[in-house]
Each structure stands twice: as C-alpha cells, then as structure tokens.
Amino acid sequence: MKSISMSGSIRKNVGGKATKELRAEGMVPCVMYGASEPIHFAVDSRQFKKLIFTPNVYVVNMNIDGTEYNILLKDAQFHPVSDAILHADFFLPAEGQKFEMKIPVRLVGASKGVLNGGRLVLMYRKLKVKGDVSSFPDFIEIDITELRIGMGTRIAELSVPGCELLEAANNYVVSVKTSRAVIEEEEEEEEAATAEGEVPAAEAEATE
Questions:
Q1: Which residues contact 23 (CB under 8 A, 6 or more apart)?
Q2: Matching fold, domains 3-92 and 100-182
Q3: 3-class secondary structure, 35
Q4: b vs e for 122-137, b when ≥16 Cβ sit within 10 Å of the residue's Cβ?
Q5: pTM to 2 decimals?
Q6: Which residues does 113 contact at the CB level (< 8 Å), separation at least 6?
Q7: Neighbours of 20 (CB within 10 A)
Q8: Which residues, 6 or more positions from 182, have their beta carbon under 8 angstroms from its beta carbon?
Q9: How far is it, in rounded angstroms, from Cα 67 to Cα 64?
Q10: Taking the chain, what is the end-to-end CA distance rounded to the nearest angstrom?
Q11: 30 DSSP β-pair partners
C-alpha cells in the first residue's frame, strides 16, 4: 500500500474552547487509537488535501513531535456547509493485526459490450476487505475486456491475496447493461421492418 508523510503536534488541551481555537488557526483536531493509548494531536488542515481528496488509500507516516507512527485514516468529520475538516480519527494497528479496510476498484480494458453500445455500471468504487497492512493492495483490478451486454463480474470471482473480501459473494461489482440508445435503435429497426411489409418475428410465430 502507498504511503504519505504528515506531521502534527500533541494537543495540551482537548476541551471545546481549545478545539475551537485550533480550528480558527487552520488546524484539525485528531485522535489516534489502536495499539497504543489514545493520542490527541493536531495537524495543519492543508496536509489533508493529499490524503482525503483522492480515491487512493494510504498508510500515513505521521510524525508527532518527533515520534513516527504508521497509521490509517479511519474517519473524518466535515462542516455541513463549508466542507472544512472538523476532526479526524486515525488507527494504529498492532503488527500483524487484521482489520477492515475499503480498497479502491480499478477497471482495465475496453468492454466488448460497451463497444457494442452497452452501458457500463460500477456498483462498488471500493470493496471492503479484511487483512493486515502488509497484505492490502493499492487497488483491486478488474479486467472488463470480455464483458458483453448482460454480463458482469461478481465478488466471488475476485481474489485479493492475503485478504478476505467482506462484501456479499453474489453481488456484482461491475456489469454491462443495455443502454437506452440500443433499445431505441432496435425499436426503430422493428418499425422500419413493419413499414416495409415484414412481419415482426413475434407476430410471425403467433400466426404459424
């Protein structure tokens, strides 16, 4: 899994007044929990741009007053109007500890169904998996080249070495549906055939 570096400083006060002052200074109150006692610290809000506003998932090399931790972002709270980051929770896993993580899905190839006018539908942009940090991939790749209209890829067809997929095995991750354009084209062809005196297949079967 890819990593990025960030830095923060221990919070001396964690009350509401201190929190408001931090935010006014452009800092984000944070807490780290997991393999250690909870650690309350603050990070400059500008550092979150490379962590939150991206489809990627990262291990964060967080330097807190000179001590480094390899942690993961578990949750972030945003202001309902401005979308400013109000608070962030980080998780410090113990060595070898297994836990849940959502990993991005990456599609590769050009679907034959889409090339024939179908519509690609992606049901999961991220998949929930369980494993340890060393086993998490940067993304889960799915080759859609052979997918034709009416076909798809289910969770059960995927494999992530060292990890357990937690989504329902029978669910589709991606599929190719018939687009409205294809349906309209078929209807136009049927209307044209009828206008030329041809009997639609369904009617022909009924009259035999």
A1: 29, 84, 86
A2: no
A3: coil
A4: eebeebebebbbebbb
A5: 0.75
A6: 120, 147, 148, 149, 150, 151, 176
A7: 11
A8: 116, 117, 118, 149
A9: 5
A10: 64
A11: 41, 88
How far is it, in rounded angstroms, from Cα 129 to Cα 101?
6
Per-residue pLDDT tens for 143-165?
999 999 999 999 999 999 999 99
Question: Could you report the per-residue pLDDT of 172-192, keeping only the tens digit for each?
Answer: 999 999 876 554 554 455 555
Mean pLDDT of 17-44: 93
Domain borders along the chain are: 3-92, 100-182
Topology at the third CATH level for domain 3-92 = Ribosomal Protein L25; Chain P (2.40.240)
CATH code for the domain defined by 100-182: 2.170.120.20
Contact assessment for residue 139 and residue 160, using Cβ atoms and an 8 Å cutoff: no
How far apart, in whole angstroms, are the C-alpha atoms of residue 3 and residue 138?
10
Q: How many residues does this entry show for the chain?
A: 208
Instruction: Give the three-state DSSP class for 178.
Output: coil
3-state secondary structure of 183: helix
